[in-house]
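Many introductory courses stop at the sequence. We go one step further.
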Amino acid sequence: MKNKGVLKRLLIYTKPYAPLIIMASLCAAVNVIMMLSVPVTIGNAIDNIVGPGQVDYGNLKTYIFKLTAAVIVASVMQWLTVYIGNLVTGRIVRDLRVRLFNKITTLPIRTLDGISHGRIVNSATNDVDMVSDGLLTAATRLFSDFALIIGTLVFMSAINIYIAAAVVLLTPLSLITAAIIAKGSYRYFNEQTILQGEFASDADRLLSCRETMAAYNYREHARARIGNINDKLAVTGLRAQFWSAMTNPSTRFVNALVFAAAGILGAVFAVYGYITVGQISTFLIYAGQYTKPFNEISSIIAQLQSASAAAARVFEITDLPDEEETNTLQLPDVVKGNIEFREVDFSYDVKVPLIRGFSLSAKKGNRVAIVGQTGSGKTTIINLLMRFFETDGGVIELDGTNINHVSRRSLRAHFGMVLQDSWLFAGTIRDNISYGKPGASDAEIEKAARDSRAHGFISRLPDGYNTYINDHTSLSYGQTQLLCIARVMLINPPILILDEATSGIDTRTEIRVQDALSVLMRGKTSFVVAHRLSTIMNADIIVVMQDGRIAEQGTHADLMLREGIYARLFRAMAE
């Protein structure tokens, strides 16, 4: 994405705050006018000090008063400009971050699976902060600097057109220098941000599996891997900072040449009586004011380049297509829960077929256990049923209705899921249980907790259902699972999906969880992906997956009599 296009898109976010931006621009304009009046006042004051005994104190007092008033007004206007700029920038960045988060919540699961979490987190934090810095700089300084350049040129030309022309002729040197530096800094700042995303992604992945890393003595390899990225980041960061740091000294050198040229030419013209000493002083001050913005503008350009690169990465995510929802058909509020798979095909990669010709019929209240080796397609069947992924062929029906013809929201409202990776957010126990039903009463929440066998440990917590939990709260895995089951209990859906819900739980805790799951599944159509014998044996239908197909199907007793894949798998699990 080109810089101009990115900056143009960022400007769209400023439209709601146009009145504030106009107000900031007016304050900046008044500030510039006051600053431009200062050199003229100083020059006039100097011309009223001719020599010993030749000082016009009356006029001098007037100029001092004007100078003081101009400085005070300029300072107030500058403060207002910065304050309003901060206000507008903060709101724009808030809007951008909300837009990014909203986009993440509407992306298809398949798209999210293709983006590293570190990349997303880095865009939502570092990239948005870089956009904030660039916008803040532009909002508070760019208008003032350009206005100051134009104003000083007008005033210098009014004093002496020839000296002003010499100053203007030397200006391109500063602009060319700034452009070269901006190009170099943009390249390295862009590389730096990409490496920051890689670093965040790898660090998150390594920290999330720290126990495994320690168990397999992978720490040295992890240090080397992170160290390699960190070394690249250090080199790229140093280059980015070097190019950025070159801005001021380079442009200041050019500005010094401009100032020297103005001083020499002013002295020559003064000798021949074309300008006064006070005008020379005024001109030199204007020359300093004229060159100073070029230092700031080059710095602003560097920051805008960095902000543009960051915004481009944010827009790469916000431009991704949403999960399409072209169907408006709604399922009835109450469904029976009859599920039918007919010749379903699916693959994550078109070159690697996974699910082929999958057919299955589950009636209301059936408990369907799906077993098979890793990679056989067990969890994929669940993803297709929830429409996290779309089928490549075949039909999945709920109570005779093709699920592809109804809205995802309507479909998913009839499902409840308990996964192996239990998830709780930072909040109270009450809020976590009522996640799927925010308006639930205290009585409903407590009943769900009792049915899920979670009420006992909740009542022993310091504040009961009002206990605040987060990542640092010491809840056991089993307790966390019971809260997730209570969450599903509360919404009481007709269809359940349990994906390794008891995996990783000790035997004693499993008894409580299985007890809660038995209550949860009563009278509901349930799809269970599990390795535990107790879950498999009690299923009405056992589906044995192999290479994306149903290798065997039946009850536990039927499949054991066949002495096929299931019998061997069952005996292996029993050992």
